[in-house]
Amino acid sequence: MIKIQDYEEKKGKISFITDMSISLANAIRRSALEIPIIAVDEVEISQNDSALYDEVLAHRIGLIPIKTPKVSGKEIKFKLKEKGPKIVYSTDLKPSAGNEYKLPITLLEEGQEIQLTAIARFGTGNEHIKYSPGLVYYKHNVNEDVLSFVKIDSEGKISYDEKELKERNLSEEQINKIKKLSKSEELSFNIESWGQIDSKNIFTQAIEVLDKNLNELNKAVK
């Protein structure tokens, strides 16, 4: 069961309620790091008059989210040539990185200039975090005002320390709410995209990766 709670395509966020097990949710979360994502992998700097060292500049450019093409394997070459005074942003890359994020790269004063070529290649988050498609996390679907006072095991069973509840000076209403809980059978699953691919695609592609890995495992053990 999957019930969409919130979906903001422009902000790259999706959250839904699901009755999947914790082990499956965690497997999907980890599989998101195996989705092929494109990011800057090589930077050739021909001129850099900014206050940043070449290594720092290259690192900042490497973390810029680039809209990932559907067909993997191809390189994308970007050019950056700017003169001060100005703040150099990710939107100054030519061609465009493909998203609306305007991320500052460096500051150029009067007379300063920057020229470089950046080459983006495909990789996965297991290789480097710059290839991570976004933040994937989940929690038990229990009210926040209760979550701090209970323990939930891997099977969703809820327990609490009655003595601790009294020491916390909780209201009678809160204590009764906690005592009524016995098991959390649902998870709140959340995905926040960095901008390379849509949050919905992160979920579906993570499932595809997991399915592929399970098929390979199945073949290996036969």
What's a quick, concise take on this entry?
The protein has 222 residues and is of the alpha+beta class. It folds into two domains: 2-34 and 132-221, 2-Layer Sandwich (Gyrase A, domain 2), CATH 3.30.1360; 37-130, RNA Polymerase Alpha Subunit, Chain A, domain 2, CATH 2.170.120.12. It has helices at 22-31, 54-62, 144-147, 162-167, 172-180, 199-221; strands at 2-8, 13-18, 37-48, 76-83, 86-89, 104-108, 113-123, 134-140, 151-152, 158-159, 187-193.
Describe the main β-sheet briefly: 4 strands, antiparallel
Report how far apart the termini are: 31 Å
What's the helical proportion of residues? 25-40%
CATH topology assignment of the largest domain: Gyrase A, domain 2
SSE sequence, one letter per element: EEHEHEEEEEHEEHHEH
Secondary-structure content class: alpha+beta
What is the alpha-carbon Rg in Å?
23 Å
Q: So, the CATH homologous superfamily of the largest domain?
A: RNA polymerase, RBP11-like subunit
Regions with pLDDT < 50 over 5+ consecutive residues? none
The number of domains: 2
Proportion of beta-strand residues: 25-35%
